[in-house]
Hints:
The chain is α+β, with helices and mostly antiparallel strands. It has a domain at 11-170: Aminopeptidase. The protein has 5 helices and 11 strands, in the order βααββαβαβαββββββ.
Amino acid sequence: MQRHPAHVGSGTDLPPHLTSSPVQLRAATLADFEAITDLIGHIDLKRRTDDIGPIFELIRTALATGQGGTGPFTHGSLHFVVAEHADHSGAIGLVRCGVASWTASLAVPSPIRNRLYSRIGNIQELAVAPEHRGRGIAHALLHRAEADHRAAGYDAIVLRHQREQTSFYTQAGYTSGSRLTLLLPGGLGRVSVPGAGWRWAVKPLVPPVSVVDIHGSPALTGLLSPRDPA
């Protein structure tokens, strides 16, 4: 499968309902670090306070490394996109995508695990400053993350969310459930990942990947299908 670098553009990349908005999207830089930590602070990460510091330090390190590097996204294998006003007054929204660490716990052969790692996108945080909510900024960031993962050759995108956010994600085309199940090809059966207090939201990005219902939770099927070279 040939991968293409993801393009992170400006306000012209916004969905149609936001094209007249003074908000634009761009790759994050180290100068955005404080705003990013403030935005993430509005999310209940269901972690102890002592665990938050290391996450922020990893973010700082990634931003300090700069754009480019090995990988298809803004910061190599990591993706940081912020929303800001056209006057460049600072980030007011964030989508952060990164490694799907939950794949490490899957009871599957290492080659299959590695392929899943490179074909399933993982959104780690989606946040908008409270005073800027209700303007479609979160949808724009979500749309950007999906488009960038699709361009980079991913099959599907997943995230964990709080129960009260279910309607937001279902309206955006996701299927939400308490577990994430992957139906694997080649007679490998299926594997499941519990939500651990969260709900999973999943969305196929390309055919033939689709979502089926298994006991009220979403299951991705059609993963790892051969692709025609682009």
